[in-house]
Every structure is written in structure tokens, then in C-alpha cells.
Design a protein that fits this description.
Blueprint lengths: L9 E9 L5 E7 L3 E7 L5 E7 L3 E6 L12 E5 L5 E5 L3 H13 L3
Antiparallel strand pairs: 1-2, 1-7, 2-3, 3-4, 5-6, 6-7
């Protein structure tokens, strides 16, 4: 498996949840040193959260009860932060690809 730095930037339409928070729609962009989650706010502003690959502890497939809106979901556990649940909206192929790319970046 190749690492993120061996591939060009890739963006995915996703939904995600941090810990037990609300599910948010937006975009996930994989970069050379980390990922970026982007979403809009009710007043039209864009918010962005960056996560360094070095902060990832593990990446695993979610059990059925942990899925977001019934979609294949990837659980991203982070060091000293709440975990993320991420589901790609582009279909099962994108969900699998995203999970593999994130897993390849776990230190």
C-alpha cells in the first residue's frame, strides 16, 4: 500500500461526526501531512478542521450500530482527541478507498 505522500490530493464528499456530536455534511481532503474536513454553517460561512496524520492512533471499519445514516463508516481514533466517524457519500468504492488511505497514514 502506498502512503498519502505518494499520491496526489484527493477530496471526498462525506458526512462525519466527532465523538457523540452532530453529523455534519461536507468535504474531506487528504493532503501530504494531514486531512482537512470542511463544512458550511447556517449563516453561510465555511468552517475547516485540520487533523495531522501523526495524531492518528488507528483506523477501523465501524460496526453496524456505529454507522452514519446506515452508510459504510470509518472510525478514526486520534491521540488525546475524540474519535471521528466518517462516511463517504460517493458510494462503497470511495468508502473503501478512503479507509485504506487513512489506514496507510497511521504512524
Amino acid at each position: 500500500m502506498t502512503s498519502r505522500s505518494d499520491q496526489g490530493p484527493r477530496a471526498y464528499a462525506v458526512i462525519w461526526r466527532t465523538g457523540a456530536g452532530p453529523v455534519r455534511p461536507g468535504k474531506l481532503v487528504l493532503g501530504a501531512t494531514g486531512l482537512r474536513l470542511e463544512t458550511g454553517t447556517p449563516d453561510g460561512r465555511r468552517t475547516t478542521e485540520g487533523i495531522r496524520y501523526a495524531d492518528l492512533a488507528s483506523v477501523e471499519k465501524a460496526r453496524s450500530a456505529e454507522r452514519l445514516h446506515g452508510r459504510p463508516t470509518t472510525l478514526v481514533r486520534r491521540r488525546e482527541r475524540e474519535p471521528l466517524a466518517i462516511a463517504a457519500l460517493d458510494g462503497p468504492g470511495s468508502a473503501h478507498e478512503l479507509a485504506e488511505r487513512l489506514a496507510s497514514e497511521v504512524p
